[in-house]
Amino acid sequence: MSHQALFTHRAIGAVQAFPLIAVTDGDFVWDKKISLPNITAYVSVVNGAVQASFVVAKTNHTKDMFAAVLDSESAKQLTMHRADFLWEKDCFECFIGHADTPAYLEINANSAGQFNSYQFDGYRTPNVMPPVANHGYDVQSFVYQDEMNYCFGFEVTKISTSMDVSRLKINPTVILYPVIDGQAVPIYYAYQHAAPPDFHASDVWQSL
Question: Of 105, 127, 136, 144, whose CB count within 10 A is highest?
Answer without folding.
Answer: 144
